[in-house]
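Proteins fold. Shown next:

***
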Amino acid sequence: MGLLENIGNNIVESLTSSLRRFASFIFLLFALGVAYGALIITHNPAMLVWAIGIPVLLAVLAYFNTAFAVISFILLGLLLLVF
């Protein structure tokens, strides 16, 4: 296994060790996504397709590519810590 997969496995193991913490993280990501989508739609209704389509495409990419999933998970976690 590569270094990135080892780091990803350690992150997944630590998050899934506490189901409550992992579930709350997912719900927080969902809430931030809804708030971001609402902000985009109120300012520019033509962006509805992009606001829905890009996250779906990223989810499909993360489903099929483990490295992308780990990197995006880490980046989203860092964004939550910073903001």
About this structure: The chain has one domain: 3-82.
